[in-house]
Design a protein that fits this description.
Elements lengths: L13 E3 L2 E3 L7 H4 L1 H17 L7 H20 L6
Antiparallel strand pairs: 1-2
């Protein structure tokens, strides 16, 4: 399983007799993921300028799509999907 947590204003989680309490995630996905997006864009332009190799490939995108399709199928049918 892969899991990515959402950015929260404060990362402290309190657990007590009434349950577990934490801040809600930042409201908009561009706020939650601003650093990864910034790093991707920086990498993209650095590679264009230098003529170097990108950190990802088309096969990475294909595999990400396979994972997304399997997750959607599992959500629709119920059982886990074997890959």
């Amino acid at each position: 399983m892969l899991q990515c947590g959402n950015r929260r204003p404060v990362d402290v989680v309190q657990s007590d007799s009434r349950g577990t309490h934490a801040d809600n995630p930042e409201a908009f996905f561009l706020q939650r993921y601003r650093d990864p997006y910034r790093l991707e864009i920086t990498h993209f332009f650095e590679v264009l300028r230098s003529g170097g190799a990108f950190g990802t490939s088309i096969s990475d995108g294909v595999e990400a799509r396979r994972l997304a399709d399997a997750a959607a199928l599992s959500n629709e049918t119920g059982p886990p999907v074997t890959m």
